[in-house]
Amino acid sequence: MTTTLSGREVSSKLGKEFLGSVVESTENSILVKSESLLPVASFLKTAPEFAFDYLTFVTAVDYNDYFEVVYHLTSLEHNCSLVLKTRCYERENPVLPSVVGLWRGADFQEREVYDLFGIKFEGHPNLKRIVLWEGFKGYPLRKDYIQW
Amino acid sequence: MVIKTEPFVLNIGPAHPSTHGVFRMRTTLDGEVVVDLQPVFGYLHRGIEKLAEERTYTQNIPFTDRLDYLASMSNNLAYVMAVEKLASIPVPERAEYLRVIMAELQRLASHLIAVGSFLNDCGAFMTPILYMIREREKILDLFEMVSGQRLTYNYMRIGGVSQDIPQEFLPALHKFVEEMPGFIDEYDQLLAENEILLARSKGVGILPREQAINISASGPVLRASGVKWDIRKADPYSVYDRLEFEIPTGSVGDCYDRYRVRVEEMRQSVRIIKQATEQLPSGEVRSPVPQRLHPPVGEVYGHIEAPKGELGFYLVSDNSIAPYRFHTRAPSLMNLTALRDMIVGWKLADLIIIFGSIDICMGEVDR
Asked: Is B23 in contact with B43 (CB distance < 8 Å)?
């Protein structure tokens, strides 16, 4: 059985260098500041007690006030999973760091989030629209999207 | 005299017999050798994730049929399981067993097409795939008995399955399960040691273990690279914990390993179906679910081991009758990330084989 790690437990193990980077930790997930996303993700990937080597999926949700980007991590070694989240409050030009450097599996998925939500991922090697065509107006999965 | 050479850009697809759907590979060639490759897709994008936000949880089941249309039953199963997890809906035991039988039949059907079209790509044109379509036909007949459909079954329901199996189903299934191992032996006899298959797929398109994990590969692609990871064992759902089966893995992660893993998985699926039919209890097949189902506020990720890999649905509920967010973790999309790494450095003729060995379904990639 894959154990779903509690966000509270994980954030208590994050250590001093991540002080202030966790915004909220609940039973199911851990929400970090967008600027601390990369250090936290890289720690979770490399720390032997977590070893989250497998990125199950990345997606975004539009909550009108903010975008929430969800990273579902799995450790094949320990057979456990964790939901890592970050938020982006900007709607005009939302920017988040890209995790492609850590998990290449995020490549197409971040492009998809960019395509359908308009969130730009800084450091992505090839951030282009993926399922829609270049020149498409708007970002369809946003809640305020109006079909033209 | 100096002869000037320069890289040559060649578009393969979108409509090409070996792209298995509408998929384009923008390749840069140096002579015959592929030096770069950019997958281009989206030709089949129907906006299912957006459409699903405007329909009720039950109305979304037929959409899932149209994701991986070669494995509709598995898609149904992953979706209804996610909704059941979100709304804490119990499933009767008989329905659980029926689901497992259908999911494994579907795995057989999907792998038959995968292996058959892979051999097609290898150059064994039409003969092996016709052998495999012959057996797939029997599975489709079984599905037609239970759902009335041959491709988009829409059979699973939130809280069970749409209807109990008809009288003639179990005898037909029994006959199929008895026959199938013989057919798999027949394929092996024809193919396993086949000189052409070995020469064209052994050592070709290697995906090392670490890389397979890093690019989030799943299913036969991940297992062929030597990672023993199967959701049915790692995170058992339904009644898989009561059934005995092995997880076949490859050793080097080349095209031949991916082919072998699929053939071995077919044997295991037959084994699972056999056990599930023996254990099949009687009783209800569907628990009562309100017509206007509105699950509590929350989010859930439900996943299964679909034929092509880890298929999951990430659902966010705002307590209304439609999902607030409906996201599909499509295995084909993630497995495609590996395409460039596997192909660069190989010849154009190998590209077709390497691509065929991933086994993708564009309905799922584009959504």
From this structure: yes
**Residue B23 CB burial class (10 angstroms; 0-12, 13-18, ≥19):** buried
- CATH number attached to the domain at B46-366: 1.10.645.10
C-alpha distance from A105 to closest chain B C-alpha (Å)? 4
* Helix orientation angle between B255-279 and B169-191, rounded to the nearest 10 degrees: 160
Q: What are B270's two structure tokens?
A: 């037959």
Structural domain boundaries of chain A? 3-122
Least confident segment among B189-203, B207-221, B263-277, B348-362? B189-203
B327 and A CB contact within 8 Å:
yes
CA B277 to chain centre: 23
CB B65 within 8 A of CB B144: no
Instruction: Name the closest residue on chain A to residue B329, using Cα atoms.
Output: A57
Nearest by CB to A61, which of B229, B316, B334? B316
A141: nearest CB among B41, B42, B50: B50
In terms of CATH, what superfamily is A3-122?
A: NADH:ubiquinone oxidoreductase Nqo5 subunit (3.30.460.80)
Helices (H), chain B: 48-52, 61-65, 72-87, 93-122, 127-147, 169-191, 195-201, 209-214, 220-224, 231-234, 255-279, 331-336, 339-343, 348-358, 362-366
Subunit contact A141:B216, Cβ cutoff 8 A: no
Measured CA to CA, the distance from residue B365 to residue B332 in angstroms comes to: 6
Residues, chain B? 367
B320 part of contact set with chain A, CB < 8 Å: no
pLDDT digits (tens, 9 = 90+) for B243-290: 989 999 988 888 899 998 999 999 999 999 999 999 989 888 888 888
Structure token pair of residue A121: 């991922």
* d(CA B138, nearest CA chain A) in Å: 34
Q: Specify the 3-state DSSP secondary structure of A16.
A: helix
CB-CB under 8 Å, B333 with A108:
yes
pTM above 0.80, yes or no: yes
Tens of pLDDT, residues B143-186: 999 988 888 898 998 988 988 899 999 999 999 999 999 988 88
pLDDT for res B104: 92
Phi-psi region at B343: left, alpha or beta (left = phi > 0; alpha = psi -120 to 50): alpha
Q: Does B213 touch chain A (CB under 8 A)?
A: yes
Burial of B252 (0-12, 13-18, 19+ CB in 10 A): middle
Q: Is B232 on the interface with A (CB under 8 A)?
A: no
ipTM summary value:
0.89
Asked whether the CA dihedral A96, A99, A100, A104 is positive or negative, the reply is negative
Q: What is the pLDDT of residues B178-195, one digit of tens each?
A: 999 998 888 888 887 888
How far apart CA B344 and CA B358 sit, in angstroms, is 15
Q: Quick check: helix, strand or coil at residue B150?
A: coil
